[in-house]
Amino acid sequence: MAFLKIENYRKSFGSTEVLKGVSFELEKGQVLAIIGSSGGGKTTLLRCINFLETADEGRLYLNGELLFDAGEEKSRRTRDEDIRKKRLHFGLVFQQFNLFPQYSVLGNVTLARRLLDRQLVSDKKRELVASGMRGKALKSELALYAAELEKRTNAESLALIERVGLSDKLNAYPCELSGGQCQRVAIARALALTPDVLCFDEPTSALDPELTGEVLSVIRGLKSGDRTMIVVTHEMEFARKVADKVIFISDGVIEEEGTPEEVFGAPKSQKTVAFLSRSAKEEEA
Predict the structure, then answer these.
(1) Is 95 within 8 Å of 202 (Cβ atoms)?
(2) Which tens digits make up the pLDDT trace of 175-192?
(3) By the 8 A CB rule, do 44 and 202 touch?
């Protein structure tokens, strides 16, 4: 059974149909590269998978569980809390970093975890109160639990920052970092909540060419047997070397799908051939 299954995703904005029935499967630990021209639907697909947009039709299965069914969503009012819980399964690294300028590197990476820790403390309090605990015993138990969460959050955040090579920038602010460094902070932040699927939306498009390599190197280093990733990218060589599966999207549909060897080495669709030819010429220029 596929770890991630997207079934017949459709999405329109007004009269413009952006996704026209996109379906694919991904095994646990695989890296999927999504390629295609601007306006083809790549980013919309990624945003729908991450619950930043809601697909008009389709289903999403994660690890065998039906996580989203457009038909059911239309028949009931989905609470914000439910959407937030679903988003926790996915991490997204944006094109433009989207770091909080008022927080340091450490603050940006730990922020989401600290908000989640607060919720966990609230849940723990309800659990303890339901069991009959009150007064000083309750306060003491909650304080101990909160301290344990904070210790774990700090330790894991520091490890992530070290992993992306920014241990010497813990207290630096986004305005003091290069674009490549900001994107590495964004990657560490996305990893902080240990998502089941880590997604990247054109992670190098906002970077100067000399900074692209450092970010791609970090993403390449994240590849492992248990980390599932989806990368929307215009870096064809990166997709060829790192991806286990490649999807070429054109005009809202999957025009071609296969291994890097199949898509890049022996494409079947004329649209794929034309796109790869244009990409090669742009890289040469």
Answers:
(1) yes
(2) 999 999 999 999 999 999
(3) no
Q: Which are the contacts of 241, defined by CB distance < 8 A and separation ≥ 6?
A: 220, 260
Residues pairing with 257 in the sheet: 247
DSSP state of 40: S
Instruction: Summarize the confidence of residues 65-71 as an average pLDDT.
Output: 93
Q: Are 156 and 192 in contact (CB under 8 A)?
A: yes
Please check whether residue 48 is in contact with residue 9, taking contact to mean a CB–CB distance below 8 angstroms. yes
**Distances in whole angstroms, Cα of residue 53 to Cα of each of 12, 19, 43, 57, 141:** 11, 12, 10, 12, 40
Distance CA 149, CA 156 (A): 11
pTM exceeds 0.85:
yes
- Position of tokens 């993403």? 219
Alpha carbon distance 265, 259 (integer Å): 9
112, 193 contact by CB (below 8 A):
yes
Query: Do 242 and 223 form a contact (C-beta atoms < 8 A)?
Result: yes
**Contact call for residues 216 and 235 (beta carbons, < 8 A):** yes
108 vs 174: CA distance, rounded Å: 9
